[in-house]
Specification:
Elements (H helix, E strand, L loop, with lengths): L4 H5 L3 H22 L13 H26 L9 H24 L5 H22 L4 H31 L1
Length: 169
């Protein structure tokens, strides 16, 4: 017994929905042909978000093996130049991001979400580097205490502010 797709769908809600979808696809295909955009290949439209996702995936694909290479080749200790400049720069960047977030929140500016994310990320990085570079003594205890009681809770607050601001928009 041979039936056509139309005869199986006729008179049902499913059939009407299928017909509507078929009509929309036919209209879109006709637009592509009319505008000369159909060259025999069907390809998805590129969106800025799709390209950004592709770039982010590429960065992750390169950095993950790079982390393994660094783990195998970096020395355990290293004498760092510009130590003061590094820490002052990180703390100044964090202060600027936090201050700018406060200003933008006061002005009800939507970009506060971006500066809050930056502040939270810098606070997290500061905690990580404080703890991981501290010598095994009172310095490490102080760094760990500061990270757990100040920097990481403030980073969480900054991330919560950013999420709230994104939802508000």
């Amino acid at each position: 017994m041979t039936t056509t797709l139309d005869s199986r769908r006729s008179g049902t809600l499913d059939g009407k929905l299928g017909d509507a979808i078929d009509d929309r696809v036919a209209d879109a295909l006709e637009d592509y042909i009319t505008e000369g955009r159909l060259d025999g290949r069907i390809r998805p439209r590129r969106s800025p978000q799709g390209l950004a996702a592709l770039v982010a995936a590429g960065v992750a694909a390169v950095l993950l093996p790079w982390c393994l290479i660094l783990a195998a080749t970096l020395p355990s200790t290293y004498q760092a130049g510009h130590w003061k400049l590094t820490w002052i720069g990180l703390d100044c960047g964090t202060a600027i991001a936090a201050g700018l977030t406060a200003y933008l929140l006061h002005k009800r500016n939507r970009y506060a979400a971006l500066t809050a994310m930056a502040a939270g990320t810098l606070l997290t990085a500061d905690a990580w580097f404080d703890v991981s570079t501290a010598s095994a003594s009172f310095d490490r205890t102080l760094s760990l205490t500061e990270a757990l009681l100040l920097e990481l809770p403030l980073a969480v607050c900054a991330f919560v502010v950013a999420a709230r601001e994104l939802k508000r928009q």
